[in-house]
């Protein structure tokens, strides 16, 4: 059965992203060779440029994919913790813990901001922010959280989790920093609770 042009393009995109995830995780953005990466994918540099524009465009696609994976992992952890407030806290703690994953650490938390700029402007982070805002609004309507601006609360919760994860990722001893970061994240978030 013959593949359509769009199926072939999608397959090539997938091959490039898979090879790039490996290269960026092992070597970092700056040292990842596009020639080696495209050879690993069995494609040409032209395929890279056609699908992503340039190395930065490919990197953005990789970050978006990993960020999506991270969101799913955090959601599963939140669902396992229960619902409402417990789920929201568990998702934040899980996000921070993912800073121990070498791929997440190198690509999303260390190279990501350096290459792509402010993470709060990334499309994947924006969708996480909107989900957090919805959770905050729900918790406020239930009287669980103080009636503050939902956008501000969501940005502060998301920002605290992201910055804690970045601290863990950049630390010389991430395993010892992780519990400190998670404890402080929880203490900060609990300041939003309506009753203590």
Structure, explained:
With about 200 residues, the chain is mainly alpha-helical. The chain has helices spanning about 5-30, 35-40, 45-50, 55-80, 85-95, 100-115, 125-140, 150-170, 175-190. It holds the Pfam family TetR_N.
Helices and strands in order:
Layout: H1 5-31, H2 34-41, H3 45-52, H4 55-81, H5 84-97, H6 102-116, H7 123-141, H8 150-170, H9 174-190
List keywords for this structure.
single chain, 196 residues, mainly alpha, 9 helices, HTH_TetR
Offer a quick outline of the entry:
The protein is mostly helical and 196 residues long.
The main β sheet shows up as: none
Average pLDDT for all residues: 92
Q: pLDDT under 50 segments (min length 5)?
A: none
Alpha carbon gap, first and last residue: 63 Å
How much helix is in the residues? over 70%
Strand residue percentage: under 5%
Task: Tell how many strands the DSSP assignment holds.
Answer: 0
The oligomeric state of the chains shown is single chain
Q: Structural class, please?
A: mainly alpha
Q: Gyration radius, to the nearest Å? A: 19 Å
